[in-house]
Amino acid sequence: MQEIKQIFLVSNLDSNFTHLGHPLVLPAKNRVAAYNFVIDKFLNKLPTYKANMLSHAARLELIRSVFSAIPVYYMANILFTKKLIAKLTAIIRNFWWTGVRENDSKKSLCLRSWKDICNSKDEGGLGIKNLKAINESLLLAAVWRLAKLPSSHLYLVLKSKYFHDTSIWKATATPPKSAFWASILKMLPNLKAHSFYQLTQGSISIWSMPWCAHWDTIHDHLIPQQASFSYPSLVRDLWLPGQKTWNQDFVFSLFRQPIASLIVKTDIIDDDGPDLLCWDLTPNGICSAKSAYKLNLQQIYTNPRNVPVAIPLDLKNLLKLIWKQKTMLPRVQTFAWRLLRKALPTGLRAGRFSIHISQICCRCGQQEDEFHPFFLCHFARVAWFSSPWFLRSEVLLQGHSTMHSVLIALIQMDHPNGSIPNILNFLWCLWKARNDFLFDRKKALPYQVNIAAIALNLDFDGVLSCLCNKQQQVQGEHSIGNHVPLQGTTLKSDLLIVGPKIFSDAAFRSNKVPDLPQGEVATGVGIFISIPSDQGEINVQVQASASSTSTPLQAEAIALTSAAHIASQLNIAHPIFLTDCLSLAKCAALRNTLDSSIPWNIRKDLAIFFKHTSALHLKVFHISREINGIAHDLAQQVFRSTGNTQVCCFSQNHSSISCHVVSLISNLQIPGVKLHTVHCY
């Protein structure tokens, strides 16, 4: 050993050895102490001479960009304890409210609960990430990668040590276990609850992988067979030989109900790719850290103590409008949030926490509630009554008991200066003037508040106009003419293309369609085909209905697939498929169901679309709803159809000959779709 050390010049591996800042050896009894260096990293990012000079908006940005990123690497490897999460959260919370103080023994003045601050901006919070949810989401994403890549080196190492005779889906806790594996096992139930395989080859295990509903209890529904019977091992063993169709007789003889019926209802994608592991909480079927974070945050909210306080709808909508204002400075937006969420340290509010804080106004000696420094103090009243407002501020408060109702009424007054940025800039300048007088004894005149508010608008407008001019210049340099774009992109006009055009649309309304059994609903499908010919243009209008769909995208995919069936039946060469669903057009142009950008719930329909158009040399484009008007109207009119299937020709060119459209489509059967009308013009 000593000779090897002399050759390679390596140090001894002890309990303090780290790799990339992470300890390689964790003590089993006190893993919290091993991660104290993470706390030190947080504290080292808070130099007193800099952090205390930051506004709340700057602190918020520092928390999002720096503090939330510090523990990410370590959180991806181990599930932090509640005690460690609480310490890290306390550092961030204290920094948000009070900056950094040399005497850490003093408590911060927290005027709003941290769970309210960590709520999303759409729900009235500031969008700061919950550290516990981040930790669990990163580990859940790690479990997903393990299940997605069973041939990876890490998976093989874990399999040989912890679940050598099964898959990770059936892994159990077998001590002794590492900190990483123990964390993985805690996240495994979430993976099982929201993951499933889309079957293409059926080369996955029947007994230990999530390929159908209730797969984890499939052994309980097994019908015992004779001793000489050889049980199937792979999913494809339950298919008919050489076909991607369920062998129903075999399935019902092997499994009890209801699992047998669930198996034969499981979709099989007609594609040559491998079986796909999908995550049902994202459109593309990939478990991202973002979707995992949302899932874990919802689970944290199952505890009533962790649920943020609900706010009125009008306040929520007002906050959304404020965050959308591009002409407002971030510090004014953050001030507006503190004002509306009752998080400003006014005298009356802050004085409840300390006897050293005066509850009266520093200017007029009245009690300083949340309205006083902005509307009732003589300084604020003079500022409101001067140019450009000319308003009596005490009148604004009549009939209102909350700050957000006052601001909403002020916005709705149609005052020439009453835009959201102008109002909040003015209120921010009032608050700044109050703080300057209270802490620095800087005396300002009321008219100077309006001048400062106008200056905020002018400064930001200048920057914004400069950016707009640069953007217009770049757009002018890269402007393009009316040429045909790439497939999957938007086509400005269908007149730019020549050839057979097939328009499709779906009416995503699960309504009653005539000629369906009582109680059943469906989705309307409209298809319009324009085929140029020597005898004149041939137009075909098709109305159909499909079984009720779960999403608008799935309905559009069924409409596109139905159009592909008809195009294949009519043998239309070089067709151009046009849809008003941009995401569907992009997916169809890829010509690959295995692409990660394709939503998992339309992979089966796209596989059918690719199969029927493989020899047609097609093109796919996105068009606007106006251009797709005929197909849109056909889809909507399905719900008012007579119910009887009508296939007829009204073309004068076909008066002396039989219509090939009618002859080819009369007996067309599209799985899951019922044709209502087919008219040839």
Task: Kindly describe this structure.
Pfam families: RVT_3, zf-RVT. This is Reverse transcriptase zinc-binding domain-containing protein. It is a single chain. By secondary structure, this protein is of the alpha/beta class. The chain folds into 4 domains: 110 residues, no CATH class; 75 residues, no CATH class; 148 residues, no CATH class; 187 residues, 2-Layer Sandwich (Nucleotidyltransferase, domain 5). Helix content is 42%, strand content 9%. It has a 7-stranded mixed sheet. Strand 10, helix 28 and strand 11 form a beta-alpha-beta unit. Helix 9 packs across helix 11, helix 22 packs across helix 23 and helix 24 runs parallel beside helix 26. The longest helix has 32 residues.
Quote the beta fraction.
Answer: 5-15%
Uncertain runs: 477-481
Number of helices: 28
Considering the protein shown, what is the CATH homologous superfamily of the largest domain? Answer: Ribonuclease H-like superfamily/Ribonuclease H
Number of domains: 4
For the largest beta-sheet, the strand count, sense and barrel status come to:
7 strands, mixed
CATH fold-type name of the largest domain: Nucleotidyltransferase, domain 5
The averaged pLDDT comes out at 87
CATH architecture of the largest domain: 2-Layer Sandwich
| Protein structure class | alpha/beta
Q: What global shape is seen?
A: flat
* Distance N to C terminus: 90 Å
Annotation, overall tally of beta strands: 11
Question: How do the strands line up in the largest sheet?
Answer: 9-8-5-6-7-11-10
- State Rg: 33 Å
Q: Helix amount, in percent?
A: 40-55%
Give the CATH class of the largest domain.
Alpha Beta
InterPro entries: RNaseH_domain (IPR002156), RNaseH_sf (IPR036397), RVT-Znf (IPR026960)
Protein name: Reverse transcriptase zinc-binding domain-containing protein
Organism: Triticum turgidum subsp. durum
Pfam family, one: zf-RVT
